[in-house]
């Protein structure tokens, strides 16, 4: 498959790229990730859509995600986590992509009182409004995995406590449990090329099933 990916240097994206070695993969990034066996186009994020002109794609993947601390304001955060993702998706659609896969968040809902979850919900709705033949929205719980210093204190505590708290997040609450980023990456790899049309939301339980398939 011919796949375009943004967010290759992030927690999920960096684990996904090695799983796509049998595909023709194009990475759009602000800095060269340095993965072997893939094509890379490096530019500022606002130039990414134009860099898909002339490409012929089957699928597009967004593993892009920032933090409020890095953004500094909700306006900048929305620019990164929403508009860059949607602009990329629109360009991928114009380049022929029939499938879009995007890493969202458990609880994403434009009506949420939590600003982060409301933003993620708006992104999901924006993507659903595009004319992709198939849209896969992955909504994992707290992502676990090495990320250097790019963590908030509460997030670090949540990860440290996750082996204990996950014991209580069973049944319907399983979707809120912490999950390893590599499982999300494996689920994306398994979903690529799925034939059924429509919009599909995948939470922790299904993500784990896909990852083990």
Furnish the topology, listing elements before pairings.
Layout (H helix, E strand, L loop, with lengths): L1 E5 L6 H4 L7 E6 L9 E4 L5 H4 L7 E4 L5 H4 L2 H21 L4 E5 L11 H14 L5 E6 L3 E2 L8 H13 L13 E2 H11 L6 E6 H8 L2
Parallel strand pairs: 1-2, 1-4, 2-3, 4-5, 5-6, 6-9, 7-8
Task: Write a structural description.
The protein is an alpha/beta fold and 213 residues long. The protein has a single domain (2-141, 181-211), classed as Rossmann fold, CATH 3.40.50. The protein has helices at residues 13-16, 48-51, 68-71, 74-94, 115-128, 153-165, 181-191, 204-211, and strands at residues 2-6, 24-29, 39-42, 59-62, 99-103, 134-139, 143-144, 179-180, 198-203. Helix 5 (115-128) links the parallel strand 5 (99-103) and strand 6. Helix 4 (74-94) packs parallel to helix 5 (115-128) and helix 7 (181-191) packs across helix 8. The chain is globular, with a radius of gyration of 16 Å. The two termini are 19 Å apart.
Overview features:
Rossmann fold; two-stranded parallel ribbon; 8 helices; 37% helix; 19% strand
Question: What's the gist of this structure?
Answer:
With 213 residues, the chain is of the alpha/beta class. It has one domain (2-141, 181-211): Rossmann fold (3-Layer(aba) Sandwich), CATH 3.40.50.720. The chain is built from 8 helices and 9 strands.
């Amino acid at each position: 498959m011919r796949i375009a990916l943004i967010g290759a240097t992030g927690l999920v994206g960096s684990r996904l790229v090695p799983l796509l070695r049998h595909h023709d993969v194009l990475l759009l990034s602000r800095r060269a990730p340095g993965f072997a066996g893939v094509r890379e186009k490096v530019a500022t994020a606002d130039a990414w859509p134009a860099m898909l002109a002339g490409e012929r794609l089957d699928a597009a993947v967004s593993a892009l995600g920032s933090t409020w601390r890095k953004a500094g304001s909700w306006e900048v955060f929305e620019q990164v986590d929403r508009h860059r993702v949607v602009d990329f998706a629109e360009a991928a659609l114009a380049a022929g992509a029939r499938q879009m896969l995007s890493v969202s968040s458990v609880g994403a809902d434009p009506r949420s009182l939590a600003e982060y979850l409301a933003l993620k919900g708006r992104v999901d709705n924006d993507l659903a409004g595009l004319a992709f033949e198939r849209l896969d929205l992955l909504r994992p719980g707290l992502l676990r995995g090495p990320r250097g210093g790019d963590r908030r204190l509460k997030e670090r505590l949540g990860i440290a406590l996750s082996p204990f708290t996950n014991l209580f997040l069973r049944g319907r609450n399983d979707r809120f449990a912490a999950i390893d980023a590599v499982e999300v990456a494996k689920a994306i790899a398994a979903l690529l090329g799925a034939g059924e049309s429509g919009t599909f939301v995948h939470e922790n339980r299904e993500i784990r099933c896909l990852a083990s398939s």
